[in-house]
Design brief:
The protein is an all-alpha fold. It is 57% helix and 2% strand. The chain has a 3-stranded antiparallel β-sheet. The protein starts with 10 loop residues before the first helix and ends in a 16-residue tail after the last helix.
Length: 517
């Protein structure tokens, strides 16, 4: 019997989630980070004996790999690296002496690939190396092994990886070429190629994507189907759709778009985002929804131990896509904002390890997107103040050269926005009241001061933007965004102050991360 863990940080926000104003306001980023801290603690608590980051039965070994990656993403998002040593040791031990994750549990190519992605995430986030091998080399070893298993003969459907690694009589999925296995190989090649600038790996990514479309795993509407059978020449498809299948191709395409600068990959990324929204979000709540099995009893086709974690992976890759590919950020935010609200409105308090993982991924995706947006706006002001000066000048002065004071003021405004982004992500001990689970709160006074100062800043800049917005020469989209952005930030800041004054804001985090057997 698996113990259930209560990660009730969501309740800090649920009590304020009853605002009925269309469109719904996304949850406060600072509160999301608070919740993420509790959820990360809940996920860690799921590991038996507090040893390696391996989930207990009945969860699968591959799911432990995704949990490791989730906690690595948590650390890079929040700056809270308290789990780093545990994660590093887990990756090294699971890599084994052959440095390729070929443990007894690696029966499928996908099992092995999930752990390769965890190692690759450690490399991308510059996690300090442990032992004599680099994180990127662990991922590279897996990729090189899997490309040797790639079957591109005429009698094996002209390409693709089989699901299973060993034959074992052929009845174990040996002949099945599925979307997740080939999607992971595609994404692994794209990310490795991008990180190391290895053109051969990028070529393999192109090749795998082309094969996936050729046999119909990915159709023209970017629906991603579960798999096909090489015994039938891959002429028949299993048309089941799972959220992590579209997610794995989505992020691989986004990485290819960033590296190649080719619009075809941007368009493909948009296609997968649209497919995800169409198929895997609830039309009623906007929540991420496993359409094939969610809402059913397990005996009636409900989600099994594997399937409960799929939508968390989709959320992870949606958020990661928004970070690296600004062109699609707005499309992603439409999904993530609604999903984050739905998670918190659901008032879930009984979160096992997989439910913790799903909510954690949604929170990370939203926090990444919000901080990236503020940082981008700020850096535009820092590096190109002349453009911004034109927004705030009266018409009679548009042709005058800017003076030093104007440049200084614009750059100062830019640094304020950059600082706001840092507050939301890096200074999580200050805003609004996060700290390591099981520690007492000590930073509430500082948090209130920070929030009050930023609210005052947003009020003053919002008034200034509105005064210029009323001028015919400045009645434009940019100024409108400035006005409403400051209004939104002011309201959320005041909301944060109110929450800090409430009873919930005076509770130590340890009261929110209780454990129940």
């Amino acid at each position: 019997m698996i113990p259930t863990y209560i990660a009730n940080a969501i309740s800090l926000i649920v009590q304020t989630a009853a605002i009925q104003a269309p469109p719904p306001t996304p949850p406060l980023s600072a509160a999301l980070l608070t919740s993420s801290s509790a959820l990360a603690a809940s996920l860690k608590s799921s590991f038996p004996n507090q040893g390696p980051a391996l989930l207990p039965q009945p969860y699968w070994w591959w799911q432990s790999g995704t949990a490791v990656e989730a906690l690595l993403n948590y650390g890079s998002t929040t700056g809270d690296w308290q789990y780093e040593e545990m994660l590093k040791n887990t990756i090294i031990t699971q890599a084994t002496v052959t440095n390729d994750f070929m443990t007894i549990d690696a029966t499928g190519n996908d099992d092995q690939a999930w752990w390769a992605l965890a190692a690759l995430t450690a490399a991308e986030n510059k996690v300090p190396q442990l032992g004599g091998i680099a994180w990127v080399d662990l991922a590279r070893n897996v990729f090189n092994e899997q490309r040797q298993r790639y079957q591109d003969g005429a009698n094996t459907c002209g390409g693709g990886l089989r699901w299973k690694i060993d034959y074992e009589g052929g009845n174990n999925g040996w002949h099945y070429k599925n979307a997740i296995t080939n999607g992971l190989f595609f994404q692994l090649g794209a990310r490795l190629g991008h990180l190391t600038n290895d053109t051969e790996m990028l070529t393999w990514a192109e090749k795998t994507y082309a094969w996936s479309t050729k046999v119909g795993l990915v159709d023209q509407d970017f629906n991603v189907y579960d798999g096909t059978d090489e015994e039938n020449g891959c002429s028949d498809l299993n048309h089941n759709q799972w959220s992590y299948n579209v997610g794995v191709y989505l992020y691989g395409s986004a990485v290819m778009a960033v590296h190649t600068k080719d619009d075809k990959w941007v368009n493909r990324t948009r296609g997968f985002i649209a497919s995800a929204k169409r198929t895997f979000t609830s039309p009623d709540t906007g929540a991420l929804f496993e359409s094939k099995c969610e809402g059913k009893d397990i005996d009636d086709g409900g989600c099994d131990t594997d399937q409960v974690s799929f939508k968390g992976l989709l959320a992870r890759w949606l958020g990661a896509t928004a970070v690296i590919l600004p062109e699609v950020q707005e499309d992603v935010e439409k999904i993530i904002n609604a999903a984050a609200i739905a998670v918190q409105d659901g008032e879930k308090t009984d979160l096992g390890p997989i439910e913790s993982f799903n909510a954690l991924e949604v929170f990370h995706a939203y926090a990444y997107g919000t901080a990236f947006w503020y940082g981008l706006r700020g850096m535009c002001r820092v590096y190109d103040p002349l453009m911004v000066i034109g927004w705030f000048r009266p018409p009679s002065q548009l042709n005058l050269a800017p003076n030093d004071l104007e440049v200084y003021n614009v750059r100062n405004d830019g640094w304020c926005l950059v600082t706001l982004a840092l507050i939301l992500v890096s200074f999580t001990n200050a805003v609004p009241f996060t700290s390591a689970p099981a520690t007492k709160l000590t930073s509430i006074p500082y948090a209130k001061a920070v929030v009050a100062a930023t609210v005052f800043h947003h009020i003053t800049t919002g008034i200034g933007a509105y005064q210029h917005y009323k001028l015919p020469s400045h009645y434009n989209t940019s100024m409108s965004i400035g006005v409403w952005g400051n209004v939104w930030l002011t309201l959320t800041g005041l909301f944060t102050l109110a929450m800090l004054q409430s009873n919930a804001g005076n509770k130590p985090v340890e009261e929110v991360t209780k454990k129940a057997k």
